[in-house]
Each structure stands twice: as C-alpha cells, then as structure tokens.
Amino acid sequence: MRIFKRFLIYGIIGLVLEVIFTGLTSLLNGDLSMRGFTFLVMMPIYGLSVFLEHLHNRIRPFPWWVRGLMYLIIILMIEYASAVILACVLGDCPWHYTDKLNVSEYISFRMAPVWFIAGLGFEFLHDFLDELPFEI
Q: Residue 50 gets which letter from DSSP?
C-alpha cells in the first residue's frame, strides 16, 4: 500500500510541476496567458519515481553532482522508453521534441539541466515523505 500511495504522490506532483513548467515556458515565449499543460499518461510515468527511492538510499554517499548525473541518465532512459511504448500502444507519442538536441523527437538533451535538478529535488521529496510522523 505504501508503494501505491507514493506512486500517486509522485505522479500528482509530477503533473503539477509539469503544468507550472510549461506555463512558465509559455510566458518566456511571450504567451501572457501562461498556458500550462500536461498529458494524463504522464501520471504513471512520474509515479515510477517511487522506484528511485531504493536507488536514492544506495547512492546517498556520492557527491550531489554524481547523483544528479545518475538521475539525469535514468530519467532520460525512462522518458525514451515511455515514448516508445506510448507510440506503440497509442500509435503516437503525445510529446515531440523538435530542437536540434532531440533523439527521435522522444527526448531532448536540452532538457538535461531540468532532469538533473528534478532528480535532486526528488531526493528532498523522498526524505520529506520518510520523515513524516505517519506512513505514506
């Protein structure tokens, strides 16, 4: 039950953060409405973060930049694999990167700093959930 609860927490937080990120990105691109969006299929993809908890516990002794690089690589692999699976199941992947740093339009190395920071941010959320006086 704990894994399911955390799966939901990570999934919902991921959706909210993506809407905020895309809204701020649209503002930087001149859209004063700050239109943010996500795809509902992202909920279970972000929820998979629950499986990074074990990794986080094992790599705690490493320097922050090594941990950040590890998360970056894993997140890019998950994003790419998710895109391939969704393209097979749905007939198309909901997102398409079109910048020069994209790979098959499924991932973009332009997003590397975002995923690096997101991975380290995950550590804080994981520790926060572990320190709560009740189990989640």
A: G
